[in-house]
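Q: Sequence in, structure out?
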Amino acid sequence: MASTQTKWVEEHFIGGHPALDLANAVFNRRVPGPDNELLKSARDVGNWFKASGLAGARKAEAVAGIGGEPFVERIHAIREASARIFGSIAAKEPPATEALGFLFECAASGLSGGAVGLNGTRPDLALARWRDPEAVTALLAMLSIEGYFTLPRERLHSCPRCGWLFLDTSRGGKRRWCSMRTCGNREKVSRHREHE
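A: Exactly. Output:
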């Protein structure tokens, strides 16, 4: 387990949907560095839930208290399956059906075991269930499945610099970067250096 916690900031949540923000929970998806992981511990996962707005402080603290590597590894597996299905959409490639199947399995185990309830069509967890690794992973899988079926495919893009996924909500649909403040500016600087 890592001794330092990831400090979540607004720039981590540029996806436009929680499933995209989860898929983006790495430093760089296109060119991963040696310390690319942002979700290093259950505490990081709990803090991510709070920073994303999916959970309040008590629920996030409950997630942070879930012990063991298997929970964090399961979160990574759900994140990577989400990245594959949304990445294939953004690249206009055939859907990653095995990744989608994995998410359905995770969601089904949480629903059939009663760990996850529903509030309308959204997953809903009682406070005590936020301590249950199966419920938390099922909730994330359900959010990704919901995004797969509801997000506008023509507006789903991948940043050409870092590979983060985002919904292009700009008026003309011409957004290119995950964020102009990060990748957009870095690209401008590197182009400027090339022309010096």
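Helices lie at 18-23, 42-52, 57-64, 69-90, 97-112, 133-150, 180-194.
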